Protein 1
Amino acid sequence: MSLHGLSLLAGQPGQTGGTTFHATNPATGERLEPAFHEASLAEAGAALDAAAEAWVDLRTRSGADRARLLEAMAAEIEELGDTLLQRAHAETGLPLVRLTGERGRTCGQLRLFAQVVREGSWVDARIDPALPTRQPLPRADLRRMLTALGPVVVFGSSNFPLAFSAAGGDTASALAAGCPVVVKAHRAHPGTAELVATALQRAVAACGFPPATYSLIHGGGSTLGIALVRHPATAAVGFTGSHTAGRALFDAAAARPHPIPVFAEMSSVNPLFVLAGALGERGATIAQGLLTSFTLGVGQFCTKPGLVFVQRGPDTEAFLQKLADAVRAAPCGTMLTHGIREAFLENRGRITSVADVRPLAASAATVHPERTEAEPSVATTSARTFLANPVLATEAFGPFTLVVVADDMAELSACAASLEGQLTATVHGTPADLAAAGSLLARLERVAGRVVINGFPTGVEVCPAMNHGGPYPATTDTRFTSVGTAAILRFVRPVCYQSYPDPLLPAALQNANPLGLLRLVDGKPTRDPVVHA
Amino acid sequence: MSLHGLSLLAGQPGQTGGTTFHATNPATGERLEPAFHEASLAEAGAALDAAAEAWVDLRTRSGADRARLLEAMAAEIEELGDTLLQRAHAETGLPLVRLTGERGRTCGQLRLFAQVVREGSWVDARIDPALPTRQPLPRADLRRMLTALGPVVVFGSSNFPLAFSAAGGDTASALAAGCPVVVKAHRAHPGTAELVATALQRAVAACGFPPATYSLIHGGGSTLGIALVRHPATAAVGFTGSHTAGRALFDAAAARPHPIPVFAEMSSVNPLFVLAGALGERGATIAQGLLTSFTLGVGQFCTKPGLVFVQRGPDTEAFLQKLADAVRAAPCGTMLTHGIREAFLENRGRITSVADVRPLAASAATVHPERTEAEPSVATTSARTFLANPVLATEAFGPFTLVVVADDMAELSACAASLEGQLTATVHGTPADLAAAGSLLARLERVAGRVVINGFPTGVEVCPAMNHGGPYPATTDTRFTSVGTAAILRFVRPVCYQSYPDPLLPAALQNANPLGLLRLVDGKPTRDPVVHA
């Protein structure tokens, strides 16, 4: 399967002739063929205009139709076989076993959204039948459901070349909602993106959807990104990446004549608290689990625990020692790109250069910069130093964590109170610890999107109850998750139909309930048909 | 019951000594006592800080507790009796019968939200129990529910002194969600706001909620409003009013270091299409209904139909004649304020001064400017003129509507295609008309929040299926309604609890389902307890 290096715009290959770029194998430094051609702003705009046309069709397609499309997409991705895995491996340096798992997750979430839209009750259908004889005024027949917002621009992430990229969670949830998708491919894995986009386009064609249901755009820099956000046809934006880039997209969207929502998942240090009882009871186990969690994927997860708070006590030193031992024994790993490694070293350096931040341990293995490697490391400091230096609460995206030692519970609480919005927060405690930690847990609930007890935050399950999102700066819109079935709610808005003749209503709202949805009728959930309406 | 003219800040009266203002009776021009004292920015900030403290308590109060508070608020408002109605009548010029109805709606929506939170399933509880033996990886126990965002700033509207003001829909839905509320009272009815706020504060005290659960602030100009939006403790904003003011609040919120959502309901012309068959079959009835709708409340409803599209045909002239007759026979009415009347005359003038816009009729009654009166009027123009002059699609908030006559269905469609976001859109048609109008209806669904068939858009039912919101510029966030039970969803975000011991979970998520909620367990809706978890 040879790559053409072109954007895929509403089923058509993009133009050549502009700027080109190559992917690089981070594990070898090798330049990977072919050259990729950046799309022009005109091409990108045309793809969005075509997507707006496609939306008119997509938004009224049945859930069954959309489910078939999502399932066909999953099958086409699987059909790419090892070609996809090999290219992703070359472009990202991620191990094949990880990529195999990530492909499973990618296809799994496409199929999960297929289930959701085939079942259909997610549209939150609400029916208040007419009350023609009500006094003092009759009530008109009112029926409401959620409908697709319009074309969604998705920015592929660096760290999930499959599960949060060309056919990732944003794409799956937007298509499920009935929104056409225009993906801006991440420049670090353009070949992976092309393969996936080609597979998706095959599914689009096979299922009889308009070609502009899905487009993939190659390009770079902020100009194209901002142009995509500003384009009048764009109705919403999904993004996973840095705070700087996410905020720039958010600002551009808010400044539009007609503002649109931006779902940017940006930065989180994912604080982890180890309470005194747990430290004594199983400090060594926690240290090992922490090592595994903060070095997973070479620390390149948005849920990586980057801050660990412990209370000074008889077991603190032993815990630090165990953690140091584990870190020293940990291997180095190839990071996704040279730029990510540089940023990691810089951000880690800003943290470790603060006075009273002491290095605790680093991997004993030789680190190979020419393989884009970084070594796991951990540093430690006091709560007082942490509270006095806001930089210590910033994210260093890579295999590093900072252990903050508090003198007492009051200091630990002060640290918790100082935290900004987070994707996750974690507490390790014995039942007695937890019983005494009510106000800490309550604080973490207010600051984080997901609170974990006696576990680790990495490993984000794709399921109905997941919440991957949190107060700013973790995300730009804390009201929504980007992982799990509720992610579909980002790309819809309610429409109310008043006094519609039954046959003109969407099937979801018709009296007979032909789709068998769970609906709110007169305020009561039911799958029964509406009678006498 | 005498008014003190002070803000009510976390249960305490505000300071005197700053700028004061008076309300004016628009029907007489009389200055109404007492003087109202504008709150300082420091006072407003302190109220928000106190609200943030109160939130820590409120967010975990049971639905039953919050329901009792909302019901006590409704009872206390009713307890104000005629005093409230008389003051509102004096401040707004609205007839007592209207205000009596609006009080019913106000107390009704407080009680409706009480029902919603007492029943409790609105929190969208989702439980995915642990799968410890799943391969290749176990699944942790994951439970998610919606929780309160934080303090909400509400800007009272001019045109609903009760139902969208101190204790209006924004206040009711925010309190129901568990968010403390700080209301910026509208300057046109400060005495009404004080009476209501005093009643609410009595309910807060009686129900044992923190005094900062509710505050009312008097003030003016954009400085205070922007300061309220920028205050770090503010988590969300509800607003009903002009596009200029709403956009300014939105921009301020988006420019915050930590952006927050603004739910501004701003402007809508609520296009109404009369198709040819309906025009022939019941043009006179439609003309009469249209007159009633666009002059209701002296045209001061956000759902007032301000644009009417008809197709030129044998029945068009008769329809226009009937409408003209009805308008000529309609009485003049007192508008809410001198400023609103001035803005109405100016905006109507901008529309009627466009070349080829012809006056069709105006009320034959004498208009009394000293009573702040405006006369119902209607003008007409061609679709060609409409399409060439975007000003004709702007809102004139008052008793005026513009009838646009299209030469054919293609022109009608072009008009529909040119429309910006709307709260509502309406179509009158016979079954045959409607059967042929699929693409028009589909277009209106995409542009409006509520589509009405063979009815009129004024009269917004407060119920589960209502949607009062629409694409920009109708509102700043088309994903949410400001009327009906779904309005509570504006003020919440999901929190996911991972691997929590059952007793530490919120009641909504505990295994036994002690609240009896409808929950999504393993993706399936059920009220059953969770077993073996």
Protein 2
Amino acid sequence: MRVGMLTSGGDCQALNATMRGVGKALFNLFDDLEIYGFESGYHGLIYSEYHKMERSDFSGILNIGGTILGTSRTPFKTINEPDENGLDKVEAMKHTYRQLRLDCLVVLGGNGSLKTANLLSQSGLNVVACPKTIDNDLWGTDMTFGFHSAVNIATEAIDCIHTTAASHKRVFIVEIMGHKVGLMTLYAGLAGGADIILIPEIPYHIDAVCNKILERYKYGSKFSIIAVAEGAISYEDSLKSKKDYKKKLAERKYPSVSYELADEVFKRTGIEVRVTVPGHTQRGGAPVPYDRVLATRFGIEAAQLIKKQDFGNMVALVKNDIVKVPLKDIAGKLKYVNPDSQIVKEAKLLGISFGD
Amino acid sequence: MRVGMLTSGGDCQALNATMRGVGKALFNLFDDLEIYGFESGYHGLIYSEYHKMERSDFSGILNIGGTILGTSRTPFKTINEPDENGLDKVEAMKHTYRQLRLDCLVVLGGNGSLKTANLLSQSGLNVVACPKTIDNDLWGTDMTFGFHSAVNIATEAIDCIHTTAASHKRVFIVEIMGHKVGLMTLYAGLAGGADIILIPEIPYHIDAVCNKILERYKYGSKFSIIAVAEGAISYEDSLKSKKDYKKKLAERKYPSVSYELADEVFKRTGIEVRVTVPGHTQRGGAPVPYDRVLATRFGIEAAQLIKKQDFGNMVALVKNDIVKVPLKDIAGKLKYVNPDSQIVKEAKLLGISFGD
Amino acid sequence: MRVGMLTSGGDCQALNATMRGVGKALFNLFDDLEIYGFESGYHGLIYSEYHKMERSDFSGILNIGGTILGTSRTPFKTINEPDENGLDKVEAMKHTYRQLRLDCLVVLGGNGSLKTANLLSQSGLNVVACPKTIDNDLWGTDMTFGFHSAVNIATEAIDCIHTTAASHKRVFIVEIMGHKVGLMTLYAGLAGGADIILIPEIPYHIDAVCNKILERYKYGSKFSIIAVAEGAISYEDSLKSKKDYKKKLAERKYPSVSYELADEVFKRTGIEVRVTVPGHTQRGGAPVPYDRVLATRFGIEAAQLIKKQDFGNMVALVKNDIVKVPLKDIAGKLKYVNPDSQIVKEAKLLGISFGD
Amino acid sequence: MRVGMLTSGGDCQALNATMRGVGKALFNLFDDLEIYGFESGYHGLIYSEYHKMERSDFSGILNIGGTILGTSRTPFKTINEPDENGLDKVEAMKHTYRQLRLDCLVVLGGNGSLKTANLLSQSGLNVVACPKTIDNDLWGTDMTFGFHSAVNIATEAIDCIHTTAASHKRVFIVEIMGHKVGLMTLYAGLAGGADIILIPEIPYHIDAVCNKILERYKYGSKFSIIAVAEGAISYEDSLKSKKDYKKKLAERKYPSVSYELADEVFKRTGIEVRVTVPGHTQRGGAPVPYDRVLATRFGIEAAQLIKKQDFGNMVALVKNDIVKVPLKDIAGKLKYVNPDSQIVKEAKLLGISFGD
């Protein structure tokens, strides 16, 4: 049994924990096993950069952040285009797979990486995927590993801001990752006790945001905390065409949404605003226990699918069970916050404003 | 609308977060609201010790450990017996409830406390309960608040032990809470990378434990880490009658199972053993974000049940949804680790020994 | 004995721990004691906003961030100017002091606040000060409380970045507080293992910074981490007049030095750069044990100075001892990083570049 | 230049950080350098078990707990006795040193290990030592690395206990490491807000301890927290001869002082007592930033001493400066808590009881 493995896309916590689960279970399931780790994601598969992984490589990495294989972003959009030297990337990957006489390939990846995994699966390779992303935006699984670890870091940032905020009359903005999806911001905002939560799925009205701040101030709260998703968008901008919006982003003087929001809030309320951008810290550090257990279980399930020769699937958490879902059914689909969902309604009942 | 509230039993993280959810949502749902907090659990309800809780009492407590109402253990077994002054406790509770003209009572409690809540509900009081315990051993809900926070602390203990263990030839035992249920130990053991996990549901053979240690040593691992539940039991002891086992516990010279296990392992392997007892630290500290969100949602759901006058229920998490379950269906039932469950099988596939 | 107390300036960790030390020790030293807490720093002293503090107010606040008294910035520059209603601030403070028949005033403050404390002391009030600031930039004390707590948060940010950095080819910039002084950045940079440390005391050459990055890349390190002080300055800018530099800052399109540096590095090296701005999280959260002990000791020493009627001093840590230093000798003086100091030389010996 | 290195005795945080400091600085100071790492402390030196350490071995270990070289306890008492095969250990170490043609040996160790280092130095080897121990009990340096990291963990345990303690009427005992010295317990007790601190240097009267608990209870504090050093001793026991005391310890039924104390307190006060034993967690986990900086600086200073060929010294922190002290002046001397010191008096002024 010869298994290839790679980690692809933006890195996150528990990548190593997942590989440990795959590796330890495979070594217990197969007597005659060789595992090859591709370096820097699909890059290693394309350019045949890999090394053999021993049983001992999977020890002591359960709580180590990052990935021992490295990762890179190989955009799906251009996967069918030749590289700068004219190399056909998909053919190159298939070539590496065959030259190494692999029986299957394990891919740890998020949205874009799973599209590539599905493409490889459709073109005949045996693929098993594990759902990796701090954004928890993958269709087909209730949870991805990385999410709760990243939420933990974002929440700690809001916690720290809370103690200092209570000492001053100020508005604090904490910018949280998540690309186009607001799940991280929603959870960290709820967990951190944010007063206002702005997410891409619910375009915000700057007036509603400022009214909430002024209302809080009127009723004795000197400070307000805004948890804003990096992909949050104002109602006006949400009406723009995709092209026009991209143009606006490219031209604006602010490095991110937070600074623009800070300026707008200050202009309209006259209250000082401070911005915190935890940035890539949200992808780093040791995974929280929740993610370690989830990742380990995903890894073991991937190993069991290999044992059963059941390929073309992503392992997933569905209603408490670790299951498989066909890659072709979920690749390329995103999971968004539903503005009418139970959790959003609950948040509003708590008094949180979404700026809508 | 007049609502009573109490926290009962062993304390845990996110009690305050839950009360905040209840309180904030109730104040947003009712114009004419009075909340009375009973002090030290059912004790306050029995002896009419309470204070009015204002809207501001629910601010700033989201991430504070412990409970602002205090708690105590009032054993269910003796709930129908008069107290030392001849007071009928159940009647006293009903009396307080009526004298305060309460419309309902919110109980945050675990196994024993929910039995009492059900008893009060059966005898005509309007009761809504929230599932509180680090043990996650309550029937009817997939998760209780406190569990992931406690697992986090237990896992951090194993993490710390891991770094130091790797420097010495030793066996390390970490004793984890959970009463008669092994869920906390199973999760923390998986998350911390324990080599051996001993839980009440799977009685252990001391020889199997020692063999695992010696086998690891033989294959180059100088150390072994055992995560042992405070309620773990040897196979021999598990055959004893309940009475005989209690007698043994009462007579043994060890303060807890860890120290007995340590002596047995040392006697049989000659390898030094070190014991860590995180003890009540597992109930303390700030709740992790997971628990804050879960507790907040439970609290809001409790408030909504009150709004709907839908009493006699416990709020619960069932397959991702916050729902209600009738108290009469779940009170007194415990949720155990199933030795044949998917997660135990996975752990074994990883190479973890349960001593069976 | 009647004691006034206030916390002034930017808040930091262990303000409450210090007040607890003062309060608990005073209540043990005096039978007949009244403590008055002024709200929002000197603001409360000017406008007579205060409340009496009881013994119980000092319980349970040892590890709580922020300040139970609130704080504000009352700039020293304008302290002698009347407020918008024509009120003479200094006279107002003296008036409040006398009307409350205070025997002394305890000020917890940083650089600007201590200048005001000294002014009040010079004009006849009995003042004892405690050195508060995350920047550790106060003359006369080896250490201020808040510093190690803030360094801890900044270091955790670098730690998180480290795990994720190692997975990608990138430059990461972490912006660290400290105003005009580089101590926080130096310590957090050393503790976090930064490759480049940029501080105000050592103006940087952008070419030296880029060369270090490229050199690291050449020798196999895919990533570089820059710890940059919020007050860091390029060599060119350091040659500008203060006025010209302020003008530049006011006009630049970047919200802070990090974003400008990021653009410059990307332009010159072509390597992707990511910016993290922990911002005010560095002032928040629970104080680390070091700060709790230091703050407690400072507070007790302040109480002892009051007992001895020894006024006009700041408590300080000098070579392991808690001592007093006259306010008039230290107010207004800043402590900088000496570019020729032992610790900077050591950092260079480790291979760290300061961009000089 | 050929340098040997070893880590000896009980492990602690920042051992790797120290070696990184030594290694990185040495590689920058010498063109022609070979470093040999001995495995498992003096064991590796005696039995010639070592490996060459490359520049890259010192990367990425700054915040990793444990030691990449392993450690062991080789008791100084028996260092002059032959091993079980008749091998003269001191001669064996000298033999290994010479056979490897070492120019010097770097020892990271605590009390016992430094005695051996001094013995080797006296017998002609070139030795440089770094002061390692969580106990901070080494003579000649104000601080050892590991201390603040261990205090941090012990303090977190007390913090967690604090939140849960406040919910119940109980006494909580937290047992803290430190061997015969109470520094860790004193610092963690102060930082955690313990009510009672029991250390070896101040033998306790059980009556004084119980009186403090009852007095607190009388004045409204339902709980008390005792920080007890593992080496704490009652006044009665302190009067015993060393032999008699050891006999008592060997015969007592309790695994450690905490459990005995718990029984005594319960017997005399009737209040429930709960015991927490963080144990070896105090040696584990990542070092705090303070220790990383201190360890790094110690390591660099050790490298500089090697460059200057200045041997027979331990690096030390003395009044803020990193200096050297002759091994012969400090080996074998312990630093205790002085019961009359400023910090103990301060603690008493705060209301803390030492049971004296």
